[in-house]
Design goal:
There is one protein chain. By secondary structure, the chain is an alpha+beta fold. The protein has a single domain (2-198), classed as Thiolase/Chalcone synthase (Peroxisomal Thiolase, Chain A, domain 1, 3-Layer(aba) Sandwich), CATH 3.40.47.10. 36% of the residues lie in helices and 23% in strands. The chain contains 10 helices and 9 strands. It has helices spanning 19-26, 47-52, 55-71, 89-99, 108-114, 118-127, 142-157, 174-177, 218-226, 233-241; strands at residues 2-13, 16-17, 80-83, 133-136, 161-167, 184-191, 200-208, 245-251, 255-263. Strands 1, 2, 3, 4, 5, 6, 7, 8 and 9 form a 9-stranded mixed beta sheet that branches. Helix 4 (89-99) crosses helix 5.
Length: 267
């Protein structure tokens, strides 16, 4: 069992515009009202980089910045895990469309936006981060894989780590072969010990899956199923409610991440 403490949360999804606004919805205290999610360009980026940043990067920076602001930590000195089920599909689409056209003039910016660690690169530019970063992908289980990696680093290194998970739908025709729902991003800042900012603790084990993964409230269940990063919703709902709660996240087919969500600090 691995134990970590939650210091800050960031969230952006349809009808879930930031953690403060979304938490009452996740607690069932406010109605869920669907609305498009449009993360704004980050003011942290220089003007040139802000113009070049694709939607996926804007999403990752928005939720990451929100989580760090809540935690009161410096992102420049905090390691970060970036998790996405497929990276920036819009840029991949643009590259493929250009290569299929008679005139194959391709901007170099498109290439560096297409790589899976693009969000981590923009994050380092935006925050001046010199701490290590990890970019990973585990298809539909990418949030669970990112959380497991973040928690393992917190426990093994004894320092705070951020998890930033995000997904953006592909354009047609890629959407036909890899359907992803609406854009969704979530971020957690996790620490090895309780601090003044921590408000919940997570006790996590990786075990063979014994049952179906935890679902979320009916109004958000379609979102959880449609967008891989939104697999975070059951955990976010448990954190919004303050626990205690048990959450199971699917992990690589026959395994599951079992998470006990508990209030406050460790006994």
């Amino acid at each position: 069992m691995m134990r970590v403490f939650v210091e800050g949360i960031g969230l952006c999804g349809p009808g879930l515009d930031g953690w403060a606004a979304a938490a009452p919805v996740l607690r069932g205290q406010a109605d869920y009202i669907p609305a498009p999610a449009n993360p704004a360009p980050s003011a942290l980026l220089p003007a040139n980089e802000r113009r070049r940043a694709p939607k996926m990067v804007k999403l990752a920076l928005a939720v990451g910045a929100e989580a760090f602001a809540a935690a009161g930590r410096d992102p420049a000195t905090t390691p970060a895990i970036f998790a996405s089920s497929g990276g920036d599909g819009e840029t991949i689409h643009d590259i493929l469309a250009t290569l299929a056209a008679p005139q194959r003039d391709l901007s170099p910016t498109k290439f560096h936006n297409s790589v899976h660690n693009a969000a981590a690169g923009y994050w380092s530019i935006a925050t001046g981060a010199m701490a290590p970063s990890t970019s990973l992908c585990a298809y539909d289980d990418s949030f669970a894989a990112g959380l497991l990696e973040a928690v393992a680093q917190v426990v093994s290194c004894g320092e705070a780590v951020a998890l930033i998970a995000y997904d953006v739908p592909y354009p047609e025709p890629l959407l036909l072969v890899r359907p992803i729902g609406a854009i969704f991003g979530a971020a957690l800042v996790l620490s090895p010990v309780p601090t003044q900012a921590s408000f919940a603790r997570l006790e996590i084990t990786l075990e063979p899956a014994a049952a179906a993964p935890t679902q979320t409230m009916p109004a958000l269940e379609d979102m959880r199923r449609a967008t891989p990063a939104a697999r975070a919703l059951p955990l976010l709902a448990a954190l919004a409610c303050g626990g205690p709660a048990q959450v199971a996240l699917a992990y690589l087919g026959d395994m599951a991440l079992h998470i006990a969500v508990l209030p406050g600090a460790a006994p």
